[in-house]
Design brief:
heterodimer; A: about 650 residues; alpha/beta; six-stranded parallel β-sheet; about 50% helix; about 15% strand; elongated; B: about 230 residues; Rossmann fold; Arc Repressor Mutant, subunit A; 2 domains; disordered N terminus
């Protein structure tokens, strides 16, 4: 039983070794593509799509956005909004005791009237956080009346496709280390229960109590070699539409809001008017309007992610380390190949398998994303789509090939058996029709005593030849096909015999063939010197015999009026030369027929020798094949040849 | 030469055959013909090789289907191998192949062509008298292989002999000189040429009225070996 399973595994392994190859190639290809960053775009799109699919989260009551909208600007009839109106707004809000007010409006210069009033507010209220801009190409400072700890930068970083998926928490600048606006808001909100500290597990990141914010590294998730300067983290957008309460300038001024919205919460004052471009591009949240949200909202998302992580353990987005990401991808790749193997017999089922596996993959990716883990989905999906079908095809083809070769093997076996059966049958009928008949006749005549001595002799002689013929026939049939050569006359010769013997046999057999120009042939000369068998293998012998046969046949076919034909094999100083000479006309030296080509191939590839074919005077053709029997024997001559060639070139 | 062997010395003949019946048959025939001869026997190849060294026979009569050692299977290959080894070690040995498998000898055509001693073939079916003639041919250094199925195939060098003798009309001494070979070798060539042309001496030399050399010329021209 165990043996059976083991055999099955071994057999399966054999099939995999060839069948799985294309699939493994695709895995390698996808991994390489991912490593070079070619798949980043796809992965980010998939990330956005999965982010949008997440279940809607409740509105975050801790953050309120006061957006100065188009209508407000119309009513105030001014832009930029004067300091007076901003001061009015802040004063109105402060009455309801917000924890912190974030002013997401640039106030590096006074916008009168009312600047003094606003600056006074900045000085008197320590719960107001202002913005600056720190990243190149240009810097904008905050109001000089705000102390540094109440300033956060409002810079937004975007990916190569212009969309923002990460937030910058802090960065070094020429004026020292700076924190971002949402971080300042969160810090102010969480104080004094939780204060901002360095990470414990990762000392380079930030921490509130036990909550460490995962630091973005250059190859995190689908990113490849992305800029990881400063301290960044992936933004886990709050899922759903309008996840923050939004009030307008007019709402506040006219007291059109519930005071609880403000009390102890973060209020972000920003511009939410179409005519004032303060947008951040994103496809990761459902509320997007033409793929973008207002800057104030973006900061709200960022601050909200930190607050809720610290207070409610809401997930922050994390990624696997590179190694685990690739292990994950390769495992799925192998699953894909296995599916291809499993469903290699049905296109429909294999497509179904792709769908099923794809669904499981997406579901897994989705679930993990909801839990805060970003797994590579796009590369795996790509592998699944290609690999299942490709592997199915490859396994199918490979199995077909195995079946085919098995079929051929069986056919060959059957043929061999058939040949053997035929041989036995033929031998039987030969014996039956020949010797047995003669014997019967002899016995009959002997019985009647009318058998003369002469008749007896003749009959016995006939019997002898007949039985010998059968023996000879059986002997030839017994020669292994791989080690024999069938000559044009149908005679089989045993290639294990010495080469010069084979040459004699080829010669005798071939010159007896019924070729037109052999009819005029008078002198059949041949002399083949012996060759030490150790210099030749069966294949070389086969080729050499075929060469001789071919050369002789050419004489029979083309050498008009040929009278003399000589074939000589000569051994000289390590070289063996086989020359076939005739005195006919008509054999054409320039004629590069198949025979000549294969002769050249034979001499060059198999024997590392030389072939030549030339006309001789007064008439006739000489074909010569010369090869070196052993490098040891020929080195000196080769060297001499080399020298000759050298001189020729000079 | 025949007389000289018969008269002056005891002829030594080795018969190699593993069939006791055939062996004794051959022995009887030979003893009748050569009453003075010393006739030894060997039943396998190893024994035959030993006997050749010990006895230094004038002629060996070999069957092809023999075992290598006592008790082993008789095989034609063994006989062929024995023949090859005899011809290699004793290039002047007179050999008679007495066998039912003479066709197999085409395989060692090269060795037969180059063998300097007598070489004759006697099918086991041959009548006694004819068989004895072949033995005598061998003892005389004649080559007789016309029973082999080959048609007028020759060694190129024999053509040179024919050409020098019959086109230039040279004597043997001069031919040997021109070809840079011993006269003995040339004689050996002549017997080979005559074998190809199927010209053999009469069994009883005294009765032979033909001039074999002239006959050779006529036959060679007829067969087209010369223009």
């Amino acid at each position: 039983m165990q043996q059976k399973i083991w055999n099955k595994i071994k057999e399966e392994f054999k099939i995999w070794r060839v069948g799985a190859f294309p699939g493994l190639l695709i895995i390698a290809f996808v991994v390489a593509a991912r490593l070079t960053g070619s798949l980043q775009f796809l992965e980010l799109i998939t990330f956005d799509a999965l982010m949008r699919l997440r279940p809607t989260e409740p509105v975050d009551e801790k953050i309120v956005i006061v957006g100065i909208n188009e209508e407000d600007i119309q009513i105030l009839k001014e832009y930029p909004i004067a300091d007076k109106n901003i001061a009015l707004l802040i004063n109105k809000l402060q009455k309801h005791n917000p924890k912190v007010i974030g002013l997401d409006i640039i106030r590096d210069k006074p916008v009168n009237p009312g600047n003094q009033q606003l600056e006074k507010l900045f000085k008197q209220n320590n719960n107001i956080v202002g913005i600056e801009k720190v990243l190149p190409p240009y810097q904008i400072s905050a109001s000089p009346k705000l102390p540094p700890e109440r300033i956060g930068f409002a810079d937004v970083i975007s990916d190569i496709d212009g969309k923002s998926r990460r937030i910058l928490l802090g960065t070094k600048t020429s004026q020292g280390y700076k924190f971002s606006f949402p971080l300042r808001l969160a810090e102010a909100y969480l104080a004094p229960d939780a204060i901002l500290e360095n990470g414990k597990r990762d000392s380079k990141t930030m921490r509130f109590k036990s909550t460490e914010i995962p630091r973005f590294t250059s190859n995190a998730g689908g990113y490849v070699k992305e800029d990881d300067s400063g301290l960044k983290t992936l933004l886990n957008f709050r899922s759903g539409n309008q996840r923050f309460k939004k009030l307008s300038f007019q709402d506040i001024i006219n007291d059109k809001f519930h005071p609880n919205l403000i009390k102890n919460n973060i209020v972000i004052i920003g511009i939410t008017a179409e005519s004032v471009p303060d947008f951040v591009n994103t496809s990761a949240v459902g509320e997007t309007h033409r793929g973008r949200i207002y800057g104030a909202e973006f900061h709200a998302h960022a601050a909200s992610q930190i607050l809720n992580a610290v207070l409610n353990n809401r997930a922050l987005l994390q990624t696997l380390s590179d190694e685990w990401e690739y292990i994950w991808i390769i495992c799925w790749g192998i699953i894909a190949i296995s599916l291809g193997r499993k469903f290699d017999f049905s296109l429909f089922k294999s497509i179904l398998a792709v769908f099923a596996a794809g669904s499981i993959l997406i579901a897994t990716g989705y679930t993990f994303l909801v839990l805060g883990w970003w797994l590579p989905v796009a590369p795996v999906l790509l592998i699944l789509l290609i690999n299942v079908e490709l592997s199915a095809f490859s396994f199918y083809k490979h199995e077909q090939a195995i079946k085919e070769s098995l079929k051929i093997k069986i056919a060959v076996q059957e043929r061999t058996i058939n040949i053997r059966e035929n041989t036995i049958r033929d031998a039987f009928s030969e014996i039956h029709n020949g010797p047995l008949q003669i014997l019967a006749a002899l016995m009959r005549d002997a019985n009647h005593q009318n058998l003369s001595q002469k008749d007896l002799n003749v009959n016995l002689q006939q019997l002898n030849t007949d039985i010998r013929d059968v023996l000879e026939y059986l002997q030839l049939e017994a020669i292994n096909n791989q080690e024999s050569l069938r000559l044009g006359t149908g005679k089989k010769i045993d290639l294990k015999r010495p080469l010069h013997e084979l040459f004699y046999e080829v010669y005798s057999n071939t010159v007896e063939r019924n070729f037109t120009y052999f009819k005029t042939l008078k002198v059949k000369a041949r002399d083949f010197e012996t060759i030490d068998e150790k210099y030749l293998n069966i294949e070389q012998k086969r080729e050499l015999c075929q060469f001789l046969e071919e050369a002789l046949c050419n004489v029979g076919k083309h050498a008009k009026y040929v009278k003399r034909l000589s074939a000589i094999g000569k051994f000289n100083e390590g070289y063996y030369t086989l020359s076939i000479k005739d005195n006919g006309t008509g054999i054409t030296c320039a004629d590069e027929n198949q025979g000549t080509k294969s002769a050249i191939e034979l001499s060059e590839k198999l024997l590392d020798g030389k072939f030549s074919r030339k006309s001789i005077s007064p008439q006739g053709t000489l074909c010569e094949l010369t090869w070196c029997l052993s490098q040891n024997l020929c080195t000196t001559n080769k060297f001499a040849d080399g020298v000759k060639v050298l001189f020729k070139h000079n | 030469m025949v007389q000289s062997i018969q008269e002056n010395a005891t002829v030594k003949i080795l018969v190699v055959d593993d069939h006791s019946l055939l062996l004794s048959g051959t022995l009887n025939v030979l003893r009748d013909c050569y009453p003075q001869a010393k006739i030894a026997t060997a039943k396998n190849a190893t024994e035959a090789e030993e006997q050749i060294i010990d006895l230094q026979p004038d002629a060996v009569v070999v069957d092809l289907s023999i075992p290598q050692n006592i008790g082993e299977k008789s095989e034609i290959e063994t006989g062929i191998a024995l023949l090859k080894s005899i011809m290699q070690d004793n290039p002047d040995m007179n050999i008679v192949v007495q066998s039912s498998h003479i066709k197999t000898l085409v395989r060692i055509q090269h060795e037969i062509d180059n063998h300097k001693g007598g070489f004759t073939i006697a099918d086991k079916m041959l009548a006694e008298k004819e068989m004895l003639t072949r033995v005598q041919y061998a003892l005389d250094g004649v080559t007789h292989t016309k029973d082999l199925p080959k048609k007028l195939e020759i060694k190129p060098i024999w053509l040179d002999v024919l050409s020098l003798a019959f086109e230039e009309g040279l004597k043997d001494k001069e031919i040997a000189k021109r070809m840079n070979i011993a006269e003995r070798t040339l004689r050996h060539y002549w017997t080979k040429i005559q074998d190809v042309l199927e010209i053999y001496p009469e069994a009883d030399k005294k009765k032979d009225v033909r001039n074999l050399r002239i006959l050779t010329q006529i036959r060679a021209r007829k067969k087209g070996l010369m223009d």
